[in-house]
Structures are given as structure tokens and as C-alpha cells.
Amino acid sequence: MKMKLFMGCVLAGLVSSALAQSNVKQLKMNKALTDEAKSCLECHAEKTPQLVHDWKDSRHSHLGVSCIDCHSRQADDPTAAQNCPGVKGTDIFVSPLVSPKTCARCHSQEVQEFEASGHLRARVQIDSKDGMQKLIYHHEGQDNPEFSGSPDETGCMQCHGSKIELDENKRPTSETWPNSGMGTIYPDGSIGNCVACHTRHRFSIAEARKPAACASCHLGPDHPDIEIYTNSKHGHIFEAEGDEWNYDSPVDAWEPGDYRAPTCATCHMSGVGELHTTHNVSERLYWNAWGKSSKPRNSKDPMNPLTGDAEKGRALMKQVCANCHTPLHTDSFFAQADKHVNLYNDSYYAPAAKMLAELKEKGLLDPNPWNDEFQKIFYHLWHHEGRRMRQGALMGGPDYAHWHGSFECMQDLYKLQKIYKERMEGAGE
Ligand code: HEC
Ligand code: HEC
Ligand code: HEC
Ligand code: HEC
Ligand code: HEC
Ligand code: HEC
Ligand code: HEC
Ligand code: HEC
Question: I need a labelling partner for 247 at 20 to 30 A (CA). Which of 23, 169, 349, 413 fits?
């Protein structure tokens, strides 16, 4: 308790200077709502009561930012419409779509940081890869003339976002909306989705700081980050007492004391100690830990898989740990984790990729990669087991580093070696 009060005093100074620089504070907020703004609230309180209730509980409502500020559109905007009965025949146009461009009017820094992060490419990279399109429509969708889009609509799009198309009434089509995927491409050209972590219409930082805000996407066999977290000592402490922590401190003033162990946001985004909050989740990373093999990050382009700066990223991440651990503890932890990433690169990915290349050269691979034993196992080796091995080690989840990681990679490698040998000797499948 004492520590928390002390931190509070020290941080009060930091916070007020950070807020003084924030562009939000320079905007004049009109707390008194106009008659038009009130009309939206009154009618929607009847028609969609919980939506208005959520908004009433938000910072936005306390500061007079209301429906009309986010949903009204200039008449010449591609999404401007009067499908809402409350605005029909007036000079107000509205859209249910609210892109980051609207948020940027008041939160330009958060939007710029988001646009520099790997989250930006979540949809673009699916649309730009032939292999992904073939997987979705040809293989999973079985080229069904009517239904082949459903794997995207119910799956990929819900996490990665969509390219929103409009119908003749300027409403989003059911093939592309609703979804709260990360990299949605809006008709106004902006990319991203702020409701991915701060759900509407609360838009709460407390919510975004909890692991649940990431867990709806970062789970499952190919990126089990929430499972790894639960398996880690930090997750152990969060599960035991996280419901008693304070998640409401202002940005850059949410410090150890408010919590005893870090959440996903603490390590990847929050202002902790000297560090400032960032919406660029790639900034504190060293490796690319999702690719076929792991390389240090070295690109300024958010569309590049190696976006980030490895050395700087590691130094920033270590600054997070330094609030609670000594350099001895942190350096030794990363020595263990990096060794496991290197083991994956050297002893699993490299030999598997070599066999794949040789089989390809000799014409011993089935043209359908999803129906060929060697290629299926190869895919699992890097995309499932290999990611779990690397991410498990880097975030302190031993069950994923080992049983779901290196152990299964080893089994995959032995199977690959057997199939390789058989095919090279002219036998086997
Ligand atoms: C801070 C900005 C903001 C404010 C204020 C706001 N909204 Fe929204 N609203 C959004 C965002 C973001 C979405 C999700 C849009 C998307 O998917 O592109 C949304 C979605 C919606 C939708 C469509 C989704 C659904 O569940 O049906 C409606 C209708 C809506 N808002 C009405 C309102 C009303 C009424 C108010 C006032 C009580 C309001 N909004 C206040 C940002 C805002
Ligand atoms: C008289 C009641 C009423 C008023 C006033 C009203 N709305 Fe609506 N609004 C509705 C209803 C009902 C719907 C659902 C319409 C439907 O899809 O059938 C709706 C739908 C919407 C949608 C989704 C549009 C779409 O294409 O589906 C948005 C966004 C919206 N309203 C925002 C607003 C804003 C902003 C205001 C204030 C300028 C406002 N509404 C005023 C009743 C109202
Ligand atoms: C018209 C200006 C305006 C628009 C548009 C706007 N906001 Fe805000 N927002 C504010 C203000 C003002 C605050 C309060 C800032 C503060 O507390 O210093 C705020 C606070 C927030 C917070 C912090 C809430 C908390 O729990 O402390 C979040 C998150 C947020 N906005 C998200 C969004 C998103 C996402 C959008 C777009 C969908 C958006 N805002 C659009 C003005 C706006
Ligand atoms: C709506 C789904 C969704 C949510 C919620 C989400 N993410 Fe992501 N995240 C993604 C997707 C999709 C990617 C992959 C983007 C790509 O590389 O195309 C990703 C990638 C990442 C990356 C790697 C970026 C890179 O440069 O390789 C990190 C780190 C990350 N997310 C952290 C977080 C954290 C922390 C949270 C919660 C505070 C979170 N994410 C919430 C969908 C989500
Ligand atoms: C449950 C949410 C979810 C679903 C569903 C999902 N993904 Fe992902 N995807 C993610 C996350 C989270 C990452 C980031 C992994 C990481 O950083 O370790 C990711 C990473 C990727 C990547 C690697 C990133 C890059 O920049 O190349 C590709 C490609 C990808 N997903 C394609 C797809 C396709 C195609 C589908 C549907 C067939 C799909 N995903 C379904 C959440 C999802
Ligand atoms: C990956 C999850 C995630 C996404 C996506 C996200 N946010 Fe945030 N946001 C957070 C977290 C976590 C915090 C609190 C950071 C902290 O603890 O220091 C936050 C804080 C904020 C704040 C409060 C800043 C302040 O100075 O008070 C605003 C405003 C905000 N976000 C706006 C946005 C906007 C606009 C977008 C869309 C571009 C967005 N967020 C997308 C996770 C996210
Ligand atoms: C104790 C701090 C910490 C916590 C808590 C934490 N992470 Fe991480 N995360 C890391 C570190 C360290 C790395 C590896 C960074 C590097 O490359 O050196 C990492 C890597 C990742 C990656 C891999 C990015 C890639 O290149 O594939 C994703 C995705 C991710 N974290 C998401 C999450 C999510 C989601 C949560 C919560 C469920 C979470 N993290 C909790 C520290 C943390
Ligand atoms: C808010 C404080 C806090 C932060 C920040 C934090 N940790 Fe921890 N960490 C803890 C606590 C508390 C434990 C549990 C110690 C125990 O088991 O008694 C712990 C445990 C661990 C453990 C398990 C081994 C052990 O000593 O118990 C590792 C490994 C670890 N942390 C690494 C990291 C790394 C790496 C970072 C930065 C990326 C980090 N931590 C950030 C508080 C923190």
C-alpha cells in the first residue's frame, strides 16, 4: 500500500506532463450535447438500450463525445447514408462503420502507432497471397459456387478483418461485415480496428489491459499465447488474484503495485516505469517467432514480417522486466529462451526445409500440399509445433516450450525423415 501511494505521488507529475502534450487535451470538448446529439441518444435508448448504456459508462460520455461525433458523415462520404429512421430526410448522414480515421481526429498518436505495427497487415497480407486465397476458397471452400466464402467469413475475417464492401444502400455487405478483426480495410481507405481490444461502446482502457482483450485471437494450436500465459508464473498469479488488481490508472501511470504480475498489455504495450505506452505491438520484439524460421527483426515497414528493430525491441522489453526482476534474472531467462529458438531454427526447421527442397527438385511432392503426408507434417512442424516451441520459451510457458513444442517437433522430424527416405529410395507414399 505504502509503495503504491508513493508511486502515485511520483507519477502524478509524469502523467500531467504526458497529458499536457496529448492532442486530446487541446480539443475543446463540448460537454453540453446539441439537440441533434440528444435526439440520437433518446431514441436509441429505446431501440438499442444496452448500446446506449455501455456508452453512458464510458469516458466518452463523461466528456460529451456522443453517437453523432463518431457516426455522422459528410454527404459526399462513400458511406454516408440515411438508413437510420431517425435521420431520414434531414441533412444528417450516418454510417454504422467507424474506421480508425474517425478516432484519429481525437487520438492521432494511437492511430499512428497502430499503423506502424504488425497488426496493420492482418488483412492485407491474406489478400495479397495467392496461397492463402487458394486455401480459403479452393481447399476449405471446395470451390462451392455459393458457400466457398464461409471459411473466411466465420474464421479468418473475425480475427484478421475484412475488406469492407458496400451494397446499393451504402451499407456493408454480409460477406464482409460484421467483424471486429484487427486489420479491417475500410471504404475510406483507412486500415485497422480499434474495437479489437477496446470493445464498443465502452472503449475502456481497463478492459484492454486484461489478457482477455488479446485472448479472443491469440489462442489455439498455432499461436496459443493465452494458454502459454496461463501456463507461466505470471499467469498463475493473474489467475490467483488478478480480479483484485486496479486496472483504471491513467495511461503511463499504471504501475507495479496496481498489479503484481504483468498481463499481455503490460509487456507489449503499457507505459511501465520509464517506458511510454505504445500501440505498436511490434516495438518490443526481438525475433519474428511466427515465421517458418526465426530471424531478428530489422525493418521499418509494417508490411514486412521482420518489422521492428531487434536490439531496441529486446532492450525495451527488458525495461519492462526491470520493474520487478534483476538483470541477472532477466538476462538468464532470455539466454534460455533464445537457445530454444535457435535449437528450433538449427535442428528442426533447417533439416526439414532441406528435405523439402530435395523432394521438390526430384518431383517427389504432390501438387496439392494439403493432401501430401510430407507437406502436411512440414506445415505442422513450423506453423503449429514450431511456433509453440518458440513462443512457449519466449513467454515462460514450459508445457508449450516442451510437450506441445520441442517434443512434437522431434516426432514430426522423425516422420519426415522416414517419408523422405522412402521417397528417395523410390518406395513409399
Ligand atoms: C467513440 C466513437 C463512437 C461513439 C461515441 C459511438 N459509436 Fe457506435 N460504433 C463505433 C464503432 C467503432 C463501431 C463498430 C463499427 C465497425 O464495425 O466498423 C460502432 C458500431 C455501432 C453500430 C452498429 C453495430 C451494432 O451493434 O448494431 C450502431 C448501430 C452504433 N454504433 C450506434 C451508436 C449510437 C446510437 C451511439 C450513441 C449512443 C454510438 N454508436 C456511439 C463507435 C462509436
Ligand atoms: C427516432 C429514432 C431514432 C433516432 C432519432 C436516431 N436513430 Fe439511429 N437508428 C434507429 C433505428 C430503429 C435503427 C435501426 C434501423 C434498421 O436497421 O432497421 C437505427 C440505426 C442506426 C445506425 C445503423 C445504420 C444502418 O445502416 O443500419 C446508426 C449508425 C445510427 N442509427 C446512428 C444514429 C445517430 C448518430 C443518430 C443521431 C443523429 C440517430 N441514429 C438517431 C432509430 C433512431
Ligand atoms: C471527438 C473526439 C473523440 C473521438 C472521435 C474519439 N474519442 Fe476517444 N476519447 C476522447 C476524449 C476527450 C477522451 C478522454 C481523454 C482523457 O481522458 O484524457 C477519450 C478517451 C478514449 C479512451 C480511453 C478510455 C478510458 O478508459 O480511459 C479510449 C480507449 C478511446 N477514447 C478510444 C476511442 C476510439 C477507439 C475511437 C474511435 C472509434 C475514439 N476514441 C473516438 C475523444 C474522442
Ligand atoms: C482481433 C484479433 C486480435 C486481437 C484482439 C489481438 N491481436 Fe495481436 N494479432 C492478431 C493478428 C491477426 C496478428 C497477425 C498480424 C499479421 O502478421 O498479419 C497479430 C499479431 C500480433 C503480434 C505480432 C506482431 C508482429 O509484428 O509480428 C503481437 C506481439 C500481438 N499481436 C500482440 C497482441 C496483444 C498484446 C494483444 C492484446 C492487448 C493483441 N495482440 C490482440 C490479432 C489480434
Ligand atoms: C482465432 C483467430 C484467428 C483466425 C480464425 C485466423 N487467424 Fe491467422 N493469425 C492469428 C494471429 C493471432 C496471428 C499472429 C500469430 C503470431 O504473431 O504469432 C495470425 C497469423 C497469421 C499469418 C502470419 C502472419 C503474416 O503476416 O503472414 C497468416 C498468413 C494468417 N494468420 C492467415 C490466416 C488465414 C488465411 C486464416 C483463415 C483461413 C486465419 N489466419 C485464421 C489469428 C487468427
Ligand atoms: C492490441 C490491443 C489494442 C488495440 C488494437 C487498440 N488499443 Fe488502445 N489501448 C490498448 C491498451 C492496452 C491501452 C492501455 C495502455 C496502458 O496500459 O498504458 C490502450 C489505451 C488507449 C487510449 C488511452 C490513451 C490515453 O492517453 O489516455 C486511447 C485513446 C486508445 N487506446 C485508443 C485506441 C485507438 C484509437 C485504437 C485504434 C487505432 C486503439 N486504441 C487500438 C490496447 C489496444
Ligand atoms: C512477461 C512479459 C510478457 C507477457 C505477460 C506476455 N508476453 Fe508476449 N512476448 C513476450 C516476449 C519477451 C516475447 C518474445 C519477444 C522477442 O522476440 O524477443 C513475446 C512474444 C509474443 C508474440 C510473438 C510475436 C511473433 O513474432 O510471433 C505474441 C503474438 C505475443 N507475445 C502475444 C502475447 C499475448 C497475447 C499475451 C497474453 C496472453 C502475451 N504475449 C503475454 C513477453 C510477454
Ligand atoms: C509486475 C512485476 C513483474 C514484471 C513486470 C515481470 N515479472 Fe516476471 N515474475 C513476477 C512475479 C511476482 C513472479 C513470481 C515469482 C515467484 O514465483 O515467486 C515472476 C516470475 C517470473 C518467472 C518464473 C521464474 C521465477 O523466478 O519464479 C520468469 C522466468 C519471469 N518472471 C520472467 C520475466 C520476464 C522475462 C519479464 C519481462 C519480459 C518479467 N518477468 C516481467 C513479476 C513480474
Answer: 23
Query: Rounded to an integer, what distance in angstroms lies between the CA atom of residue 142 and that of residue 416?
Result: 28
Name the residue of 3, 233, 334 to mutate for ligand 8: max ligand atoms within 8 A of Cβ.
233
Atom 6 (ligand 6): residue with closest C-alpha? 194
Spatial separation of the C-alpha atoms in residues 308 and 302, rounded to whole Å: 8
- In this prediction, residues 159-177 reach a mean pLDDT of 98
Terminus-to-terminus CA distance in the chain, angstroms? 66
| 394, 230 contact by CB (below 8 A) | no
Residue nearest to atom 29 of ligand 1 (CA): 96
Indicate which residue's Cα is closest to atom 3 of ligand 6: 197
- What's the mean pLDDT in 145-155? 97
Residue corresponding to grid cell 535457435: 342
Find out whether 368 and 386 touch, Cβ atoms under 8 Å: no
Quote the cell numbers at residue 47. Answer: 431501440
For 426, left (φ over 0), alpha (ψ -120 to 50), or beta? left
Distance CA 425, CA 428 (A): 8
Residue (of 231, 236, 255) closest to 245 by Cα position: 255
| Amino acid in position 5 | L
How many A from CA of 218 to the centre of ligand 4?
7
Residue 169 has pLDDT above 80, yes or no: yes
Taking CB atoms and a 6 Å cutoff, what residues make up the pocket around ligand 3? 19, 24, 29, 59-60, 63, 65, 69-70, 98, 102-103, 105-107, 194, 198, 203-205
CA angle 221, 243, 265 (to 5 degrees): 55
CA distance 383 to 369: 14
The answer on pLDDT for 40 being more than 60 is yes
Contact yes or no for 170/96 (Cβ under 8 A): no
Looking at all shown ligands, the one closest to residue 106's CA atom is 3
Mean pLDDT of 62-89: 96
pLDDT digits (tens, 9 = 90+) for 319-370: 999 999 999 999 999 999 999 999 999 999 999 999 999 999 999 999 999 9
The protein residue whose alpha carbon is closest to atom 39 in ligand 4 is: 214
Give me the sign of the Cα torsion angle 150, 151, 155, 161: negative
Residue 364 contacts residue 424 (beta carbons within 8 Å) = yes
Q: Which residue's C-alpha comes closest to atom 39 of ligand 8?
A: 321
Contact 182, 217 (CB under 8 A): yes
